[in-house]
């Protein structure tokens, strides 16, 4: 279930961070509460 | 959802784990076909080139499998730097299971800026700032003044209604301590880019200290900011302990003091009375021991207290955790007759529709 690090080209992600193509990485976890399944704003 | 949406639009790659993935999947963030819909061009291009069928948010599996740590270590190795030096932020909103708590703690120990526990705004709640503002380094009080460290340092009994956040949900009102909330943003995620912008709570707090061992942080021996709720473990990390969401303002004051729920002298007195009372519940004159554990510990306790090695048990595959429990039973020497599920929806199908279980011998005398 889910992706493993082996399935992700982390070298390209590292290069994108170093080159400024992306600003950072966010880890989203722990929202085991139904209220966070709220509707997205229009 | 909103966090993911904003991050992805602003060139921040997102990964997820645990129950957050469920919500993200519901809105298509884990669907590779919707990758470009959710992402900026930069993130979409990176995802396209970094793996097969990567969705907008890369799900790294459940909290128990170590997928996040595995990803971070691989990334750090590829970048030839330490995890703490990468522009990474973690959001463990309302993480209240042991696996997620442990994972959040581990990330703090690795030096990752980690948001932990305080509730995110819910539908219909007042818009008084929140995680997104925190991530931008612009946390503000309800009266629109920027938060400062001293906002959380008032004495016990001090009455400042502005320091109490509006009610966020049924029966829930955050204390001023939790009002400080959220996170010290990693400078790379602030509006000023990659410069070493001082975090918003930095005034009056120690800077540049070495990361505290997690054990010390858990015991509150770090730089405690009011009531031991927030530990300033290093320059860019604040860890908010779970469980103080509804802590009264007076009870939260007094740095270094523990509350009744912590293992201090008062708790010992309270627990001692409860242990005596439990003897009556369990109809025993002997001492009662409480085995504090996660759900995984309850699995083990239930098996070793009712079965012996060699006993035969019937177990059904009703989900991922059922499989883990089966594996535990095997390691404990039990003989498991495991009825597997078949197909992607097997876990939610009635057991009566499954294959017939084998014959299970009568249990032992226990």
Query: How many helical stretches of chain A?
Result: 1
Question: Looking at the structure, what is the overall shape of chain A?
Answer: flat
* Biggest sheet descriptor of chain B: 3 strands, antiparallel
Helix content of chain A: 10-25%
Main beta-sheet annotation of chain A: none
Strand coverage percent of chain B: 5-15%
- On the 0-100 scale, what is the average pLDDT of chain B? 63
The ordered string of helix (H) and strand (E) elements of chain A is HE
**Order of H and E elements of chain B:** HEHHHEHEHEHHHEEEHHHEHE
Shape of chain B: extended
Write up what this structure looks like.
The complex is a heterodimer of chains A (42) and B (366). With 42 residues, chain A is of the alpha+beta class. Chain A is 21% helix and 14% strand. Chain A contains one helix and one strand, in the order αβ. Chain A has one helix at residues 10-18; one strand at residues 24-29. Chain B has 366 residues and is an alpha/beta fold. Chain B is 31% helix and 11% strand. Chain B has helices spanning 2-9, 20-26, 35-38, 41-49, 67-79, 98-109, 131-135, 176-180, 214-218, 249-252, 265-282, 295-304, 320-331; strands at 12-17, 57-59, 88-93, 113-117, 223-225, 230-234, 237-240, 312-316, 335-339. In chain B, a hairpin with a 2-residue loop joins strand 6 and strand 7 (237-240). The termini of chain B are far apart. The relative contact order of chain B is 0.08. The model of chain B is unreliable at 118-249 (pLDDT under 50). The interface between A and B is large, with 37 and 78 residues.
